[in-house]
Amino acid sequence: MAAHPQHASPTLPALDSPAASAAALRTFFNISKAWALTATEEQRLLGVQRSTVYAWRAGDHPARLDADTLERLSYVFGIYSALQVLFPVAERADAWIRKPNTAPLFGGRSALERMLGGQVADLFEVRRYLDAVRGGVS
Q1: Rounded to two decimals, what is the model's pTM?
Q2: How many domains would you assign to the chain?
Q3: Of 12, 39, 10, which Cα lies nearest the Cα of 23?
Q4: CB-count exposure of residue 56 (10 Å: 0-12, 13-18, 19+)
Q5: Domain range for residue 23?
Q6: 126 touches 104 (CB < 8 A)
Q7: How confident is the model over 73-88, as pLDDT tens digits?
Q8: 9: exposed, middle or buried (C-beta count within 10 Å: 0-12, 13-18, 19+)?
Q9: Which end of the chain is less crowded, N or C, counting CB atoms within 10 A of the terminal residue's CB?
């Protein structure tokens, strides 16, 4: 049974709250650190301006993230999670995104190169690929 907003858990912020925005961005920047992303790569994955990436990294979080950013974050979190399942050794999971991949989706390029295509669909396709590899529904 879904909780009504007035009955939301006191420990979980509403998804459109400043606390949720801050938590999501902290999570993204932790993943970014694990993947050794550059500011330019972060900007491309998030679909925002470079100045926005720097502001967010410095803790200047928006009160609400827009739907496009939330969707992008969701895919990045799903990709990260799927890799943790597929590669129980964190270093291997984190390194996978930069390794050349012969799967048709990548054509010899890395998953990160595909993810940096700039479109939400690029993130979606990598997420779908990983879900299929780990036996999930694609």
Answers
A1: 0.85
A2: 1
A3: 12
A4: buried
A5: 16-133
A6: no
A7: 999 999 999 999 999 8
A8: exposed
A9: N
Q: Is 8 within the bounds of a domain?
A: no
Alpha-carbon torsion (116, 120, 121, 123), positive or negative: positive
Q: Residue 10 falls within a domain, yes or no?
A: no
- For helices 18-35 and 67-86, the axis angle rounded to 10 degrees is 40
Three-state DSSP at 39 gives helix
Structure tokens at 131: 């879900």
Query: Does the structure show a pLDDT above 80 at 121?
Result: yes
Within a domain: 34: yes
Determine, yes or no, domain membership for 4.
no
Arithmetic mean of pLDDT, 62-79: 93
